[in-house]
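Re: the 131-residue chain
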Amino acid sequence: MTTSNLDTIAATYEGSPEDNARHLMAALAPEVLWIEAAGSPYAGQYVGTAQIVEGVFARIGSDWAVFGVQVHTYLADGDRVAAFGRYSGTHRASGKAMEASFSHLYQLRDGQIIRMEQVVDSAAMLQAMQP
């Protein structure tokens, strides 16, 4: 049975955090381009899994005592899948909680993610990070 692009992306959000991370790492193409929104605390372009893990996920894990990602809508169109939802978290240093809307647009080739671009309510994240 062939997995659809939508199924590939949904598997990175719909399980336990450990399962989601495992599915995401398996779905990333070797030279994947990962774009975090300008204005975000993690803004920038990251190429390949090592840069993504170090520049985004390790920093999120360090900065946030709790960080959740909840998708409420998926849209699929050929090789592109969009996920819309909300981040939630409690910042370690400030102790402040936040909720921020996001959208992630993925492009896939042969079942692997070759590009992800994020749009996020970075103001909510930055506010929670302030002492």
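Strands lie at 28-36, 44-47, 64-77, 80-91, 97-109, 112-120.
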